[in-house]
What does this fold into?
Amino acid sequence: MPLDEDKRPSKDNTLPKPSHSPWLTTPKFVKRLFDRFPLVTYPSNDLPRRKPIERNRNTLYIFARPDDQRKDAPSFNPTCLKWQTYLKLLGVNIVTAASNNHASPSGQLPFLVPGSSSSSLEVIPPVTFSKLQEWASKNGNTSRQGPEDMRYEAYMSLLDHRIRNAWLHAIYLAPPNFDAVARRLYITPETSSYLVQISLAKTLQSAALEEIIKNSKSPIVDIDALYQESNRAFSALSELLGDNDWFFGDSPGLLDASVFAYTYLLCDDAMGWKEEDERLGKELREGRWPNLVEHTRRIYEKWYQ
It folds into this structure.
């Protein structure tokens, strides 16, 4: 079939230009605007860099109270405080900076940005939470790392399960403490929106309950048993410490830092624990395990004062 006359190719083998719909043309006033202010695409910004005076120091990003004026003050979060203390025990030169999980590359605090002795502006990859111990083993005093003692893992398990379960319940699921401690430290600093605060509170409480159930391996949480188990764990740790300064050997290690992370926060008045619910920490504060209190004071006075 022959082509229609108006669609037949021209002699220079080019197709006729398509007709334009008036609806697709740029309005004249918009065109004049962009002619005067053309669209410019700038290159992406580099990642924020620390002040030059801090570039040669390792910066540990942790949960920290914004109103705490003490330099490198202990974190109010036990996981952050554990690694903050461990790095200090290993003699690693660090500074701390307040942060939150959203700022962490792994979604969890703490994380560390290693210092650089170079004068270049190269951005050094951060050390995420799961790699902190490996990094510390290469950059700290190796004589203060975990001992070759089979009991070591068993006692660490007491902290990671029995004491942590009670901590999660005390701070997130016990109403007096949740309002006085968790809401003040974790929620209010994040947002001023009432609706967002409600949502964040539910998320934190659900996550705490889920972890307790997972660690307890039971769908039913026996609250009284939870605190009894934590007291038994403190008793076992107190017995292990005895009259010694440190748990294993002549120098402190990861277990010392892990115990301090809980005992310090439970004895710290600035945390704001409510008298209406003192099931966790009451016996510690009342002197049932005086050697654990002395252990806490020993670390605080040597590495935080």
